[in-house]
Design goal:
mainly alpha, 336 residues, 2 domains, 3-stranded antiparallel sheet
Length: 336
Amino acid sequence: MKSHLQTIWKNHLPQHLFGFTQTLLLGDKKDLDPLVLSKFQYAGIAHMLAISGMHIGLLFIMLERITFWFNKKVQLLLPLSILWSYAALLGFSPSAIRAVLGISIWLFLKHLHKWTSPIHILLLTAFISLCFNPYLIFDVGFQFSYTAVLGIFLFYPLLNKRVLIENRIIKNIAQIVLISLCAQLGVLPLSLHYFHLFPSLFLLSNLLTTPLFPLILFTAIGVCIFPSISTLYIHSVELLFQIVNWLDSQCWSYFYVFQVSKLHVLGMYIILYQVYLYLLFQSKNEIYSLYIPKKIDPWYRYFYLKCKQKPLLYIIRGAVILLIIVLFSERLPLIY
């Protein structure tokens, strides 16, 4: 199957787009120009070159629209069979497994007329993946995949409530910016630790490229079936490259951050959690509950520790944590 697709791409696409298309649809970067990869990383849109939840989600939306007129069994089984076949074609990469497994669980719950939190589904997919391969916990792609989605699930609903915009177009633009911001918050500590890079234009780059990405993905899939539409795909990718080149040409498009230790990563995530609690408290304006299970004889009881905490307390906690990290760190991060 892969060799057949590669033959189609070689016959109908320019040489410099073959590696890009192979990376986009198969996640294989061996023929991708390293300069293109570095530019996407500096622009903060490297997730477009990895098989991520955005790829699988757009593919699922397309399949959902195609099977809309069929009965419920076809709506359930046909998308799942195609998605899992695609995951097998990708070699069951962690990001693809997370996305396909999450969609599968969501579809089964929808079919059973039951519902649960998206965070629970995300954690369940992580648990199932780790049951098959516990060493995935040390995989950088696995960590980035789950922290990015967790950042979206935690922060996006709280921030989206604060967007009081009636204009539909402006609201959609604001939602794109918020999703990019939440995903970046989730992966920022890991990105600084592993790659020592902070793309300062990630909001602008995602705002410019996200509306273009569905067209590129769908036309790339279309080229595999109808090679005659390759012209539309080529023009779309060339436009994307022009945007990325312009972003990369800005001297302030990224910063290097060195000496970010694991202690710094832990501290940043604790501070982000305090920010989440602050936003959650403000949005709900209710008592914060902590559930502590305790076994008494054969029965389980839950003690509810309820306390009304002022939002300022979360800010003070974050500041104290930051101070402790600075005092106990052997080396402080350096920004260039």
